[in-house]
# Entry
Amino acid sequence: MRFTNTEINVFYNNIENMRRKSIEIEDMLARDFVTPFTIVPVPDEAPPEIPRLVGKTKEGHTEIQISKIATKLIIRYDNDYSVDWKKCENYATDKINLVYNVLDPFVNYDYKFVGIINNIMIQEENPKKFIAEKFIKTDDIERIEELNTRVAFIKDKKFYTNLQISSIKADIGDKSKNQSKLIEAINFNLDVNDRFRSNFIKDYKSSKDIALEALSISTGIISSKIEEILESGVIKL
# Structure
């Protein structure tokens, strides 16, 4: 099992006067991120979802994109992290704590929802055949170029847990040494978010604790469900 990346998406109502606040935001993120950030040259009246600030961590593994209504963290794993989920979880937890602590005063704790997306892949000689035989019925596997199946569950009337299983080709070579190694694999795209409550509960507010709970749910699925799904062909989250 190989962990490739985690994406954390935090949605909130609005950051007013973001251009004026950008330096303060940078200063609060300077512990982990290279400053100054890239300031995207868009007018104030541009759509609020367009990122205004973009930065990277000092070690280069994480990118942050901050817009008026959302912040996205893209964490990419390599070396020991790519095969040790506990290390990935600890790293993601640290970044969640940091980002929420920075955002809290700017959004006045007025969070809409949060989504945590993880991509996990398992090398397989013929992933299309494996997925077809486990999850669908077809007698024409050789003509299939790509294959994926997706399911979405509701957990505790609070979270959506979405899982997409697909066949991919991936390069797992050592990028630092410009080495390439192309493999075929089964990819699990796991998305846990609290948009269910955001959709159905009036004046619902998300929080850092909700984000950490979504990450914990992801850990439970990664640790105990992925291999079980592969073995049984039954998707239970």
The CA atoms of residues 71 and 182 lie 32 Å apart. Helices lie at 18-29, 85-107, 127-135, 195-200, 208-224, 226-232.
